[in-house]
Amino acid sequence: AEDYSTVWSSDTGGTYPGPGGAISGAGDVLAWALGRLDYPVDWSTVRAWRAWLNRFQLSGYVAEPVDPWDLIQDAWLDSLLPVAVVIRDGRLTIIPWRYDAKRSEAVRHIEVGPGLTHPGRIVYELDRVRSRFQVSTALRSDGDAREVLTAEPRPLEYSAALIRQRSTSNRVLARARTLVGEVAEIQTSAWCGDTATAFLSLYWQAVRGLVTRYVTVQDITGEYEELQDGDVVTLTYADAGISSALGLVSRDRLSPVAQNLRVILLPET
Description:
This protein is α+β, with helices and mostly antiparallel strands. The chain is built from seven helices and 14 strands. The chain starts with 15 loop residues before the first strand and ends with a strand. Residues 1-18 and 162-167 have low confidence and may be disordered.
């Protein structure tokens, strides 16, 4: 995503007071909140992704007593941060959904064939495709938004360089417009700490919206049982014309078939 920066005035709220002073990076704040839950935490995973999450800056204040879990779920996840907090092996852990992953980050290549079958149809959906986002950020003390930001395709002059350019907000949203036309989503993200975070958040949501294909495979031999939710992989399924497609693992834990492994195919933006 493009780089932006801003300075918020004092009436927009401030950063969290941590043990060593104020903290604003989402990774630090999330670790701070998880540490206040009366539940075991997988700290090795939380710390491993802390720097990655600190790209997102949070700003705000708590005016009354609140359960840390409600704060995590209602204020920060889903629309602001591309992570999930789940229970795994009896501990809380985080799953980073890297919709902007690169091929160099893939940990395994999955190929449909002997020992790895495709039991059903490839699922297509357009539910989250949006060609325009509007977000109100950082509330003032009077409840009004400090900034209202819009991300939408900008008409650009054709150039070969533009066509070669990958993974920009403009390119992603322009592709979304070809799929669904003018479809907007309006959000309020009061904990967004700066303009850079707002556009970074809107960017990953726009890329997530272009995820329209899910492939479920059945790992009969258990060769891929070590793969976890959020792992970056590549997938080849020759009968469906899929060759080394980049994807994210999302295990189907509600399936009665324990070996089912779902791969979210990332859009080639």
